[in-house]
Amino acid sequence: MDISRWALRLEYDGTGFVGWQKQQDGVSIQSLIEAAASRLVGNRPVSSITAGRTDAGVHASGMVIHIDFPGDAKINGRQIRDGMGYYLKPHRVVVLEAAPVSLDWSARFSAIWRSYQFKILNRQARPALQETHVWHVKRVLDVDLMQEGANYLLGSHDFTSFRAIACQARSAVRTLDVLTIHREGELVIVNTKARSFLHHQVRNMVGSLVMVGSRQWPPEKMREVLEARNRCAAGPTSPPDGLCLTGVGYPEDPFA
Length: 256
Fold this sequence. Notes:
alpha+beta
């Protein structure tokens, strides 16, 4: 069948969803996106591919996907953005922009980096306004110690200690290009960037870095955890609430 491929950049609040991927039980971001896209073209089926699958409760401010519409569909980028935005109501899922791409372009396989941000609310009182968008940590965190520990993780390593037991990646070797920690008032913000990540890698790294920041571990413990290549050696998995996929990069930006 003749198709036309479009790249879409999405923003969504992952609270209450089962994650990106369609599942038998619960509402997924993918199911909402494909249903909205289908309504644009007379309820004909459409398929989508994402740059990265987010877990239940994880958010996105710059997720990129591609959708294959029927080739005879007379639509443009504005109609896709606004039309899908209309059909996605009242869910907190939004199409920010849409651009035509070639059929050999893939949101997943053409990507050369992904970036994430993790937010920790570091105070005694529990969150009210940010409840589903932060990890609440009461113990005072030293961001300088966290950064010192994070530096051991930069570069190319076997990240077995920081991958989920259920991770399906064939290799645990990844190259971490960015891992920075800074404080903005009561918020401790972790930014990271790599070509790709293992399942739960960011959340597991953050869980271990909080052990360092709360002075339960010395910073050099991160090197020991990495070299152990054993998930049991690392800290806890941080909750999904604080995690947000912030961007996906390509050799040529399709939205430029």
